[in-house]
Amino acid sequence: MSNPPRQIDDARVKKLAASGMSNSAIAREIGCNEASVRRARKRLRIAAAPKVDGGTGAAPAGESETHRPDGSADYVLNSERAWGYNDFCRFIESKGQNPDEVTFTWGVTTNPSGGFWNKLNNVRPIKQGTEAIDMAALEQRIREYRPTITRKTDSAPHSLITVPTDIQAGKVDWNGGTVDTLDQVLASFTAAAEMAVRERPQEIVIVDAGDVIENIYSTSSQLGTNDLDLPHQVEAAMHIMLSGIQMLAPLAPSLKYVAVSSNHGAHRIGPKSPAGDVHADYGIVIAKMIGRALTLNPEAFGHVEVITPPPFMESLSFETSGSTIGVVHGHQAGSADKLGDWWKGQSHGRMPTADARILIAGHWHSMRVQQSGDARWILVGPASDRGSSWFTNARGESSKSGMLTFLTSNNEWEQLRIL
Question: What is the pTM of this model?
Answer without folding.
Answer: 0.67
